[in-house]
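Hi,

Apologies if this is the wrong queue. I'm a grad student, and the batch job for Helix-turn-helix domain-containing protein from Intrasporangium calvum produced an output file that my downstream script rejects. I'm not sure whether the problem is my script or the file. Here is the sequence I used:
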Amino acid sequence: MAQRFLQLAEVSEILNISSAQAYALVRSGELPAIKIGGRGQWRVEVTELENYIQRMYAETRSFVQSHPFGGALEE
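Support response: The file is valid. Your script probably expects a header line. Output copied below for reference.
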């Protein structure tokens, strides 16, 4: 059976970011997650992580399109 939820350490490894950055994404609500258990461990659903990655691709495309560089110089 495929894994449904990821720990923040796994999220940080997949995104190649620090654990603190993964925690900040979750706490800000930018990356949806749930808290479970008595100690309130954060878990991110695999589909939410994929949605987040797709949103970041879309935002990056939009940024690049609205901030072109390297075009012909005006004389």
